Amino acid sequence: MNTETLWKFMERGIVSDNNRHDALVYFGRRVSRKTFIENVRLWARVIKGMGLKEGDELLLFGPSLPEFIYILLAADMVGVSANLPNLMASPEALETMVGKSRVAFVFDGMEKTIRHALLREQFEHVVIISATRSMGYPLKMIASPLNSLTHFCSRHRAKYLTADAAIRRFGHYEGPLEATPVKGKAAYVFCSSGTSNKGVANQIGMSDEAMIAMFRNALAFNENGNPFCEGTRSYCQLPPFVCTGFFVLVLAPLFRGMTVYLDPRPGVKQFTKNILAFRPQTSLATGASWVNLVDHIDRLIQSGKKPDLSFFRFPVMGGEGCTPQALQHINEVMQTCGSTVALTSGYGLSETFSVCTVDYQPTGFDKDYSRHAVCVGAPFPGVTVGIFDEDGKELGRNQRGEIRVKTQSLTVGYINNHELNQTKLHGGWLHTHDFGELDENGKLYIYGRMAQYILAPDGEKVYLFDIANRLRDDPAVKEALVCPLVTEDKPLVAHIVLEDNHSGTESEVLHRLDRIMADFLPAGLRIEKYRLEKEHLKINIVGKIDRHYYSHLLTGYYELHS
Question: Closest Cα partner for 208 from 235, 180, 227, 236?
């Protein structure tokens, strides 16, 4: 039995707005819903004009530019699978992620990262898209294209094209565009922003029917407080391979008559700047991004400038959370600045195309900060969540174990990874490999990845997040990360951010923490080195703590042991 394409489903929602609200705003340039649909159809003609057929695959590599959104939806319209590799992957890893794509659409600022793969004979055309293409004048003239890339394109003109050249050459296709949907086919190949299999990000196939199932879940969720509200604004900074952000910040808002503000520039500082400038009702970012926003607001308040945050309707923390203490402070500041809603904590997975649980309250700030983990709420409509032990036995309330999920919005599988499909998609449940518990009210708390542990000499598993939580219990500690280094002996190290007003010298604090660890850790296990970090832990381009960076950081440690 066939289904409709995601694009066909999306188009009905976009058209139903009757062009009352703009679809996109990009560096001040507004794109109407009518123009949005015209652009999707234009790129559909380009894709077909290039000779791609239903069942073929194309590659998309870049941030959230308007063109990438058009191409993503155009590919689905014509039945071509869009492959979105992880932008943070190494050039070596990218070699395995390009799949069977014959055509690539690449952001000019990241072309060098993937160039080696693009020069393969399998790629017939490589379309280079500049971040300036959809900008308005005069900004477009100021942000000029990269001369070095233009020169490179000219030397490889047999396959390299600018976006405008691709439209001129292939955009006159006049044949049929709408594909016949195929049930179970991977319409999109997304890529996890984290690492869930031996440090390598996994590629995940999502079918049209699974993605539409998530839409139906969201429409049922929207009956409580109408968070996706027609005429409001959504702000998206996340790249499109982060499919949870792509759904919550782009697809669902477009379907519901919202206007999406795009800015492809990553970083917590840009997030803070744009939240205060765009005043979006909806945004989704990691805990580090929200912490940075509130730190900035704290400084404004101290200088006598209290910003107005009353515009928030559905602010969401996802991808990676923060400590309960940090969340409590975020909500206190938001309430002080006029917000009527607390920051919503959510739990989503690429494998389910987005949301699994959400702790959303249409009004008020009644939140629980008493545990070591942040509450990420009750299961989303259409989602079942269970907690299981290592033997596969389902556990009761307030018992920690692996989080498993059932939903109709589940991935069709991991691409070219039969082993992972067998271990994670088993018995009707998605085995998330995340560690958490359900409280007496059925709300979920997440502690971390099950793989984040170290073995004590007696074979006992000691979870790194439990060690970090114990360190955070000390009033001098603002943030902590514990990880083994990648050296041969793999010593356990702790990265510590201290509170600004902590008592005692840094040396005294570290010696106290070391004594606490001696009592907390099993015999024979110790933290070998401590490193003090400034203000916050380093994060990557999607706003998560950069654990890869810290596991490879070999200098700057205090060694407290003889």
Answer: 180
> What is the rounded distance in angstroms from the CA atom of residue 38 to the CA atom of residue 65?
16
Q: ∠ CA(494), CA(495), CA(500), 5° rounding? A: 130
How many Cβ atoms sit within 10 Å of the Cβ of residue 396? 10
Whether 383 contacts 352, CB under 8 Å: yes
Mean pLDDT, the chain cut into blocks of 10 residues (562 residues total): 84 95 97 97 98 96 95 97 90 87 95 92 95 79 51 65 96 94 92 56 91 96 95 95 92 97 92 97 95 96 96 95 94 97 95 94 91 94 96 95 95 88 86 95 94 92 96 94 93 94 91 95 94 89 88 90 54
Please name the residue that has the structure tokens 């449940």.
Answer: 429
The reported pLDDT for the residue numbered 142 is 57
- Are residues 10 and 41 in contact, defined by beta-carbon separation less than 8 angstroms? no
Q: Nearest 5°: CA angle at 330, between 324 and 332?
A: 105
- Residue 305 is predicted with a pLDDT of 95
Number of neighbours of residue 199 by Cβ within 10 angstroms: 11
Measure the N-to-C terminal CA separation of the chain; round to a whole number of Å. 69
Give the C-alpha separation, 402 to 390, whole Å: 8
Residues in the chain: 562
Q: In degrees rounded to 5, what are phi and psi of residue 125?
A: -140, 140
Superfamily classification of domain 230-236+245-449: ANL, N-terminal domain (3.40.50.12780)
The encoded tokens of residue 443 equal 């709300």
**Domain residue spans in the chain?**
6-183, 230-236+245-449, 453-551
Residue 398 DSSP class: T
| Number of helices followed by number of strands (H, E) in the chain | 18, 27
6-183 fold: Rossmann fold (3.40.50)
Task: Find out whether 65 and 43 touch, Cβ atoms under 8 Å.
Answer: no
Determine contact, residues 58/103, Cβ cutoff 8 Å. yes
CATH class of 453-551: alpha beta
Burial class (CB in 10 A: 0-12, 13-18, 19+), 308: exposed
**Identical fold at 6-183 and 230-236+245-449?**
yes
**If you ran DSSP here, which 8-state letter would residue 393 be given?**
P
Q: What is the pLDDT of residue 150?
A: 53
Cβ-proximal residues to 62 (8 Å cutoff; 6+ apart), any chain: 68, 87, 105, 106, 107, 109, 110, 129, 239, 264
Instruction: Tell me, yes or no, if the pTM score tops 0.90.
Output: yes
From CA 384, how far away is CA 405, in angstroms rounded? 6
Q: Report which residue type is found at 145.
A: P
Helix/strand/coil for 507: helix
216 to 15, 90, 344: CA distances (angstroms): 18, 36, 20
Residue 544 is which amino acid? K
> H/E/C letters for each residue in 43-77?
HHHHHHHCCCCCCCEEEEECCCCHHHHHHHHHHHH
**For residue 87, which of 57, 110, 112 has the smallest C-alpha distance?**
110
